[in-house]
Amino acid sequence: MRRLLFALPLVVAIIIGGFAIWGLSGGRDPGAIPSVLISQPVPELALEPVEGVGSPGFTTAELNEIEGIKLLNVFASWCGPCRAEHPILTRIAEEEGVTLIGLNYKDKPEAAAAWLEELGNPYVAVGSDYSGRAGIELGISGVPETFIIDEDGIIRHRMAGPVVGDGRRRFTEILNEVRQ
């Protein structure tokens, strides 16, 4: 019995080490956060406009009325990576012919308005999620996050993190797959 108790820490260390090796081995993207909403309709949202922006808010029904593929970008003025991806998403929307919709997450309206005034407002609608309720409905893990929504209102992809660098290339590939 003493030998068993003596060996117990060694067995636990081997198990923990095995999980560490498995977690660090290739074949998995640590940035890929699964979402239960993939292949599901956009949840019911009703977002008021961000005061001072001059763009309307939106509901899920209004989102579904927009023809073609839509990108729903969750952003905030206090988010550094959101600033980095903003011009890239603007360019993707222009070059790829997709509609860009903004969801301003837990942000003061005056800060969001100033941010969009400075960087430009590429969004056809910008909904305010000051309470964070819409973020909960969408299952976001933080900002930025961008959802690719097909013409039928079905979420086809979720990009957690900024659409920059290699992420932009992968995002564009997935956008092209959704088109087919």
Automatic annotation (TrEMBL):
GO biological-process terms attached to the record: cytochrome complex assembly
Cellular component aspect of the GO annotation: outer membrane-bounded periplasmic space
Alphabetically ordered keywords of this record: Cytochrome c-type biogenesis, Disulfide bond, Redox-active center
Keyword Metal-binding set for record: no
Localisation per UniProt entry: Cell envelope
Taxonomy, superkingdom: Bacteria
PROSITE patterns linked to this entry: THIOREDOXIN_1, THIOREDOXIN_2
Pfam families: Redoxin
Recorded GO MF terms: disulfide oxidoreductase activity
InterPro entries per record: Periplasmic_diS_OxRdtase_DsbE, Redoxin, Thioredoxin-like_sf, Thioredoxin_CS, Thioredoxin_domain, Thioredoxin_ResA/DsbE_sf
Main location: other
Residue stretches making up the Thioredoxin domain: 36-180
Family, per entry: Belongs to the thioredoxin family. DsbE subfamily.
Name used for this protein in its record: Cytochrome c biogenesis protein CcmG/thiol:disulfide interchange protein DsbE
Organism: Litoreibacter ponti
